[in-house]
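hey so i finally got around to running the thing on that chain from the lab meeting. sorry it took forever, my laptop kept dying and i had to restart like 3 times. anyway pasting the input first so we r on the same page abt which one it is
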Amino acid sequence: MLLRESLEEIDDFRVKRCRKFELADIFLLVLFGLLSGIKDIEHIAEWAEEAEESIKGLVKFEFGPPSADTILRVFRNVNADKIEKVFIKWAHGIYEKVKIEPDRTIVAIDGKTMCGSNKVTGAKGIHIVSAWADELSLILGQVKTDEKSNEITAIPELLELIDIRGMIITIDAMGCQKKICEKIKEKKADYVLSLKGNQSTTHEAVKDFFSMDEKELAKYGVIKSEKECNPDHGRIENRQYYLCTNLSWLENKDEWPGT
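ok and heres what got predicted. didnt touch it at all, straight out
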């Protein structure tokens, strides 16, 4: 389904006889502006006036592009949840067409605070938790939270919105939670999580295990590899990687779904 067709599914709250612009065209205009690097509605409206000839094949403005006030009025009144659902539906349509076989797409779930969103006096920054399909360069879905500490509750909500069957989900230590793992397995996906001190018992057990000498590790089938890299400023790092699929030594492994 084309993006325009998806956007046309959003209910138009405006009185029909007063409409000069199609809702889908307004959304597309803002999207084109953002993709062009414009960060606010006023400048998008100014850009639309200048670029009217070049975008007229993509959007239909019989009376010329809408003003900034018109665009802002639309975004103040439109159902944001509906836009999100339409976007996710469209993104998955794209994914189904271009997904890589075998279907083991890596999806990184991460939260970021939007740059400049906390400039309004007394307002917190807008924190977005997104699911990024790296091989496809595509966001499959996102959820807004008040702050980073709310990621733990936002991640299951995001997972509920998207189809992750057969995918590998990666999340940082904030999302290393048993309930999140349960949700991922429930959605028939696998996970790779960062393990830090917020899961102190498991963290200490893993640290103790990998502190054993290599002969002891070999008894559990541990595979070791090394890589030298130059990440920045002329530094040379020697990174060591260990892979262990035998978790018989981990006392609480049954508490983690899929282990």
